Amino acid sequence: MKTLSELDILQQHLNNAIDTIRDEIKRNNLPPLSNYSTEPHPMDDASIALPPRLYEARRLLMGKPYSATFSWFSFSETFCTVYSFSGMQFEKAFLQGQLQCLVQSPFDRVVEQSLSGYESSCLQILIRSGVLDQLAETDDPSAGIPAQELAKVADIDSWKLVPVMRYLASQGWLSEVKEDTFRLTRLALELRWGNNGRNWITTPGKPEISTAFVKQVLNEDPNWRYSRQPNQAAYQLAFNTDQTVFEYLKHHPKERHLWAMSIQAWGDITYVGIIADYPWSSLDGYTLVDCAGGQGKLSIALVKMLPNSQVIIQDREEVGTLAKNNVKHNMPEVILGDRISVEAQDLFMPQPRSGPKHVYILKLVLHDWPDLECITILQHLAKAAREDTKIFIIDAISEPCTLRTVPESEKVDLKDLEYAEEYRKISPPAFIPANFGCSAKPLLALSVHMLGLFNGRERSMSEWETVISGAGLDIAAVHGLRGTLSIIECQLPPRKDNEFH
Ligand SMILES: C[S@@+](CC[C@H](N)C(=O)[O-])C[C@H]1O[C@@H](n2cnc3c(N)ncnc32)[C@H](O)[C@@H]1O
């Protein structure tokens, strides 16, 4: 007999729940569910007791960590324990996305969202108390450790630790192997010391900035409310400063280091797609200028890939030291200033590197800035550019959340990618928005975070077009990459016959 995998079993639960909901809707003469309806559905009315089978099918589909009829703890205890005994992880039953929106009770969603900040707080507790590292470094990670023991080593109250850990277990970060004994799950391994997830989550200030974000947007002072200055955002409200994030970090080296690690984490997760999905070898022989190149991970890769190219990492003076150390660490054989150099260069000053066959790269830079600043940055590059210069904006293209009908001849679906080596994005299938809805949540959350930090944002293609044409540049091509980013290749517009350069 075929042994079913966890994926097989979860699919069965999913199909069973959907089939049941469909059947119950028909049996009870309810209207069809739609995420695009502008009317409430009878199932949204919490004062009506749903038929038991429909109620339970919805609970199965949501894999909900709580419900109206179960108290938080009793439900979590039963459910988490049962699931960890059967070797399954709760988080995998928690189906996100379109299906969640379609079937979840709107009030439950409100409760879940209004308390969602606790997930971040509980993760902070897990990490900052050292509990996560205790769980990661134990001799037998699969056995787990009783919360009482963890609390004693961390010097915190176990009465407070247990609800924190159980909540995290319900969200998939931990599993409760027996009552009050927890172990890490696959998801939580990303939070171990040295991993990108840990670097990203430990950058200081995220909770403070997200709280102050409300005050940024709804500020009583209209000068603030309508300000798009990079130094009038939630960050300044949270840290009581009038400096931009980068100016502030200049004077706070410890935070600067943590920030650099978190930026690097985002860079790392997008790196594979940038390298794999663009034909970089076609640029061998070009001079590549990595503007605001940070610690220079992309530049180091490019100099290794392109033996006839020169690569220059530019950034703020205080970041240059990090980049130099990084180059020395990763390429001990290379002499700085030979094929790779690091130099201080302000994005808002004229670009000194100019000449034939140049590529200016702006990776994850423009999303940090409001439109006016982006236009100024691009104008400096446009002024330094020649006819054959390429300007690469490597940033996300944040599709709107609209439904889009793709003409049949242009459709790409999963079947088209069978055995494909070249990456192509699939077209959104029916009822899935252009940005794939909840799949875009990390990027859209980052977009809001950019607003809170700098009045920056992730941009849609039409928003990119505004900024690029505002700087007097043309778009030559757009390359989609795996890992949320794209390369928007820009160039000078063709010269008119009567123009002299
Ligand atoms: C989000 S990071 C991106 C770094 C790098 N391109 C990457 O992808 O890892 C933004 C970078 O812009 C740099 N930066 C900020 N303001 C700058 C300025 N006025 N001139 C030059 N660099 C600046 C920061 O120091 C930081 O390294």
From TrEMBL:
Matches recorded under InterPro entries: COMT-like, COMT_C, SAM-dependent_MTases_sf, WH-like_DNA-bd_sf, WH_DNA-bd_sf
Keyword Magnesium in record: no
GO BP terms in the entry: methylation
Pfam hit, one: Methyltransf_2
Molecular function GO labels: O-methyltransferase activity
Domain O-methyltransferase C-terminal residue range list: 231-399
Keywords: Methyltransferase, S-adenosyl-L-methionine, Transferase
The protein's name in its UniProt record: O-methyltransferase C-terminal domain-containing protein
